[in-house]
Amino acid sequence: MPTPTVTSVVAGQPVSGGRTTTSTNPSRLAEVVATVELGSSDTFVDACRAARAAQRAWADVPAPVRGQVVAAIGRLVEENAEALAQLVTREIGKPLAEARGEVQEIADTCAFFLGEGRRLYGQTVPSEMPDKQLFTFRNPVGVAAIITAGNFPVAVPSWYLVPALLCGNAVVWKPAEYAAASANALYELFAHAGLPAGVLNLVQADGANTFAGLETALTQGLVDKVGFTGSTEVGAKIGELCGRFLQAPCLELGGKNPMVVTENASLDLAVEGALFSGFGTAGQRCTSLGTVIVHESVHAEFVRRYADAVSHAVIGDPTQDVLYGPMLDERFAHRYEKFLDWVRPHHTVLGSSAVGRIGTDAPREGFVGDPGEGLFYHPVVLDGVRPDDEVFGEETFGPLVGITTYTQLDEAIELANAPGYGLSAAIYTTDPQEVFTFRRGIGAGMVSVNNSTSGAEAHLPFGGNGRSGNGSRQSGQWVLDQFTRWQAVNWDYSGRLQKAQMDTATLTGDPSFRL
Active-site residue among 91, 116, 177, 252? Predict the structure, then answer.
């Protein structure tokens, strides 16, 4: 079977790139999924210019009709769900069950926003003067430049693309290079749902050319909104760039997500939640569990159960029934190995027979498949983590979970907030008072009670604070504020100039009256 070549697509036409790279299967490194022709900064600017040319006509399409296009996207996704999930698993190594769930999330997103096409409501506001009406309207922002990571190569982009398009914007989408084939497949599904040429443009490019192209496009007034999902470091640079042009980007960044396990928690349930959120997708989610903060009275028992669960978890071939497969790409494998250097002598290492890459010299009992074919790494549980450890304060984006202890709930909340991220947090408890004390004190944008730090529903706001983002939210009705701008209209039909705050009628009572 020949290896497909994917390119950028601008105004409906493929654009050849000047440099090629390959997207490989991280569970079978010898397998090339696609050859990728990378565009330049000019490609990005051209895509923004094409989006600008197409946007006004798309905005003139009635919102309910745009909703019908979103519905068509959802139907095409459902009809192609298995093929898309299989491609995601091949390209980034996500277990097939997770990939199927990711594809379902696109369909769920489309189902929600289909209805929003009939609910882009404004308001009629009473005026303080007669013969005058006040209104508010939602207008599209214009052209949205969307840059996404590849750990959720199709679901997370849909969080941006679907509402942006529904609201009447045109979009330039730059996906991760290592997920280029999945991005191309998703683009094709959108394009075949009835979108006019130029309304959605796909740019396959590296980070440097994307940033340069974005800067030029902003300078030329071609971009009105930037959405970015990725690292905190890059997000800060994009935020700084957008700030020069008085734009507020939508930034969904990293996380060091805490899980508090109280003295009255169901330990079996907490272990199950910590296993999934710590090691699903090999810990390569922005919502992955970073540190478990366990009450000192149940610490030893929780560690025993958790280490046992991790030790017996099935790891390997992502097409099989496994907890996790490989790292997403070689760049993440190399970076994760640097994080392993943060293991210190005061840490107790649990969860597997070795630390680092799984292979003949460091085997993993029960591994499924041939570990030598891919980027497979042992799960690591570190007990005895301290607040001044690098592994406590920084995102490790891989199969590594730290454990520490607390005495009072206020101490647990302080530890949970200490790294400065604020994406997701969880608490396991049977005490409602602890739930609400935790909710009030935690700085995370998303809080789970007796559930994992990972797992978002398509109609709930998703996003973080602090090092995890700038407070913007995706998903549900809340994302509409990212892709629309409020417009206020006052219509005076009195036939004379009525000046607010000056020509307002007053009714005078008798303030001296007493019973």
Answer: 252
Active site residue 252: yes
Entry pTM: 0.95
The encoded tokens of residue 200 equal: 């959605």
Residues 377, 282: Cα–Cα separation, whole Å: 8
Place of tokens 């030893």: 300
pLDDT of residue 288: 97
Q: By 3-state DSSP, what share of the chain in percent is helix, strand and coil, each rounded to 5?
A: 40, 25, 40
Tokens 């489309």, located at residue: 110
DSSP one-letter string for 254-304: ---EEEEE-TTS-HHHHHHHHHHHHHGGGG-STT-EEEEEEETTTHHHHHH
CA 152 remoteness from chain centre: 8
CA dist 271 and 302 (Å) reads 7
Tokens of 99: 């990939």
Tokens matching residue 156: 């997370």
For residues 107 and 187, the answer to whether their CB atoms sit within 8 Å is no
pLDDT attached to residue 1: 64
**In degrees, to the nearest 5, what angle opens at C-alpha 20 toward C-alphas 283 and 46?**
95
Contact predicate 63/117, CB 8 Å: yes
Give the integer Cα–Cα distance in Å for 379 and 283: 9
Average of per-residue pLDDT across 455-464: 88
Phi, psi of 410 (to 5 degrees): -60, -35
CB atoms within 10 A of CB 332: 22
Nearest to 379 by CA among 359, 356, 362, 395: 356
CA angle 291, 293, 296 (to 5 degrees): 145
For residue 14, which amino acid is it?
A: P
Over residues 187-211, the mean pLDDT reads 97
Residue 82 structure tokens: 């298995």
Q: How far apart are the first and last CA of the chain?
A: 94
